[in-house]
Amino acid sequence: MPEADYNDRLADLDHHLVTCFDPDLGRAVLVETFNGRRNYCYSYLCADVDAEKFERETASRFPAEPLTWEVRDDPDWQFIKGYAREFGF
Fold first, then answer.
1. Domain residues of the chain, as ranges?
2. Band of residue 3 on the pLDDT scale cut at 50, 70, 90
3. So what's the pLDDT on residue 59?
4. The dihedral of CA 44, 83, 19, 58: what is its sign?
5. How many CB atoms within 10 Å of residue 12?
6. Less Cβ crowding at N or C end of the chain, within 10 Å?
7. For residues 72 and 87, what is the distance between their CA atoms, to the nearest angstrom?
8. Cα(26)–Cα(19) distance, rounded to whole angstroms?
9. What CA–CA distances, in Å, run from 7 to 27, 28, 61?
10. pLDDT digit string (tens) for 6-53?
């Protein structure tokens, strides 16, 4: 399990990632901790959202965090639907 200090250190970043989008433009659907480390925040964004701009602004706001990004098309939300089935949500 993650340490309390680790979670506390990431609280501002977590909050940013789950609240930064206008609900009509994007939504964070999953923040995941794996092997004791925060590894994933999955979000769905409208096609007209400038994801690269968001990435640059977030990296600038949280320069101490080693952030990496991956963007994929998933118009039918298959990833999160499969995750929910796999883990019984």
1. 4-87
2. confident
3. 96
4. negative
5. 12
6. N
7. 22
8. 9
9. 21, 18, 18
10. 888 899 999 999 999 999 999 999 988 888 788 888 999 999 899 999
66-76: average pLDDT = 93
Q: Which residues, 6+ apart, have CB-to-CB distance to 48 below 8 Å?
A: 25
What contacts 24+ positions apart, CB below 8 Å, involve 36-44?
36/1, 36/2, 36/3, 36/6, 37/2, 37/6, 38/2, 38/6, 38/10, 38/14, 41/14, 41/17, 42/79, 42/80, 43/17, 44/74, 44/77, 44/80
Rounded to whole angstroms, what are the CA distances from 37 to 4, 10, 17, 31? 12, 10, 16, 11
Calculate the average pLDDT of the chain.
Answer: 90
pTM of the model as a whole: 0.81
